[in-house]
Amino acid sequence: MLRAKTPGALLALAAALGVSPAAAARPLTPPIASYEISCRLDPEKKTVTGTELLTWTNTTPHAVAALRLHLYLNAFRNTRSTFWRERESRHGGRKLAESWGSIELTRLALSSDGTDLLPTLRYLSPDDDNPDDRTVAEVTLPRPVGPSQSIVLNVDFVSRLPRVSVRSGYKGDFFLVAQWFPKVGVLEESGWNCHQYHASSEFFADFGDYDVTIEAPGRYKGKIGATGARVSERETSDGRVFVRFRQESVHDFAWTADPDFRVLRDIFREPGIGDVEILLFIQPEHLSQAERHFKAVKAALSGYGRVLGPYPYPTLTVVDPPWGARGAGGMEYPTFITAGTSLVAPSPLQDPEGVTVHEFGHQYFYGLLASNEFEEPWLDEGFNTYMTDRVLKATYGDDRSYVSVFGIRFPLGIDVHLPLDDNRRYFAHATDDPLGIPSWKYREGETYGALVYDKTALALATIERLVGTPAMDKALRLYADRWRFRHPRTRDFIAALSEITGKDTQWLFDRTFFSSGVVDYAVIEATSVPSEPPRGFFEKDGRLTLGPPAALARPRGYDSRVTVVRQGDIALPVEILLRFEGGHNYRSSWDGEARWKRFRVERGPRLLDAVVDPDEKILLDADRTNNGRRPEGDPRAASRWTARAVFWLQNLFDFATVAW
Ligand SMILES: [Zn+2]
């Protein structure tokens, strides 16, 4: 077992080097869990040895006599961890590279009187009772911490990093150090909310202030990036470098180090949105793509900021992991995102742009709106996927990342799924599970992706089209303003939307988010045949006469019939457009509740086609190829593919509000 160097020695060394405490910036929110950490990176042993001063405040109305800690890196401890078991069982048997990681506590003591808490430490598995998981620990306190009281702990730890496969680790001299320090759980009124590290889940933590000093060999000088602002960097005569970072009002801290990094800087300024220094830590072979990262980050800062309010931090650090470490890419930490790019990155693929915009978006949906990613992962991934798509479309246009062959668009594979253009992944898993279950309970890893990312984004885009974009934007802003620096739940967004629209919108979410049913409207019948004179007895001069009156006897126009059915379990309001020769269009709103609706037109113009949901508002519709039909026997009767192409041409979003 590794033993940490005494923490005092590290702190004394830092003091001797003149790394003086910087004047604290004013926090944006009162801190609940704050960390002062001094740590040393050993690039050969792949370890980070640290000493941590944890200041935690009980903000609940109840005293608490035990403290729970996340020890996330123990997910990589062995094949018995919950993370490893889930990864192997729910991810199609895809094997992870076996490289082990761990975090060990070598000291855990009350700062006030030195009481050693380590003997009381026990591991818990609140999510799955796995006796071998070591990612959550509890220690018993000698005295309860009362409401509004704070406690300060001295924690020494050794973190051993795995070769990067998922989120955190090393590749050669490159390090992405995340989920790396002992971290207190979130105390709620009902008790500790401290989940294990899962294969399909991210994290949850309280806001606080971070002050972190990292020691590394001299070759890392200028090549360490982290959450927050770099306060100082000093090199010692024996060739070691000490870099100190601070950030107030965040709920995590991650950092990266790579002697190969090229570090580029840019500034984003937009009144009312932010004044932000952007630092890009990029691999030298990707330098030619640096401008694309900057453009994407600025577009994201502006696009998200305009809808969700200003980005409140002075810095944003973007990390481009090296070849072979893409597992470290596409992750988000406060003021710090990992994007990543390929050596060859033709611009239509929007790699790196898609990932950069998406990961920046998490500064809102996870960073500022610190929802519980274990329990309601759609609040970060799904909401963010929806907004990523909007920002990408606004910045790069509608048709990015697709090739068009005979009117059919094929998505090109990129890291960020863009479900608003292609709901196939969602449809493939639509009935596996409802949304609304904790992140580790989805049947497969793919199910998690299809529902948490794609279905949520499709549902939100559908809701946007039903209530109108202005109402949606107002609701997003209300939610973002009201819950900034707090822990919102889904019900809080629903409340915001109901408040803005003046109508109870809960039912929309019950049907879309919290159901495994599918939406599928289809036109199953469309006919239009020349009208024939009616036959039988008709009244003429007060007597029944065989044959119709002259006015009806003349053949005129067409009789048309259209039947629209609800094939899915889920009902949503839809519109139906009947188009007739001569430019006569008939549009009807349907609440969509019944199983079918039929339209009949007699002696009218010839029906050209019938389309349900002509403006493509119901993006959740699982099969859009059955949404339109031309009358049978029409020589122009189209195959479903040409029909589909026609509807794409009509891809004009109508933001009119429909009644419900
Ligand atoms: Zn994401």
Protein described:
- By secondary structure, the chain is α+β, with helices and mostly antiparallel strands.
- It contains 13 helices and 33 strands.
- It has a seven-stranded mixed beta sheet with strand order 4-7-2-1-13-16-15, covered by helices on one side.
- The protein is elongated.
- The structure holds zinc ion.
- The site of zinc ion has 4 residues, from helix 6.
Task: Outline the fold blueprint.
Elements: H1 7-16, E1 33-42, E2 47-57, E3 64-70, H2 82-90, E4 102-110, E5 122-123, E6 136-145, E7 150-160, E8 169-171, E9 174-177, E10 183-184, E11 186-188, E12 191-193, E13 208-217, E14 224-226, E15 229-235, E16 240-250, E17 255-257, E18 262-270, E19 274-282, H3 290-308, E20 315-319, E21 331-333, E22 336-338, H4 353-361, H5 363-368, H6 381-396, E23 402-405, E24 408-411, H7 424-428, H8 445-467, H9 469-483, H10 490-501, H11 506-512, E25 521-530, E26 537-540, E27 543-546, H12 550-553, E28 558-566, E29 574-580, E30 584-590, E31 596-604, E32 607-612, E33 628-629, H13 640-649
Parallel strand pairs: 1-13, 19-20, 20-22
Antiparallel strand pairs: 1-2, 2-7, 3-6, 3-10, 4-7, 5-6, 8-9, 9-17, 11-12, 13-16, 14-17, 15-16, 18-19, 21-22, 23-24, 25-28, 26-27, 28-31, 29-30, 29-32, 32-33
Bound molecules: zinc ion.
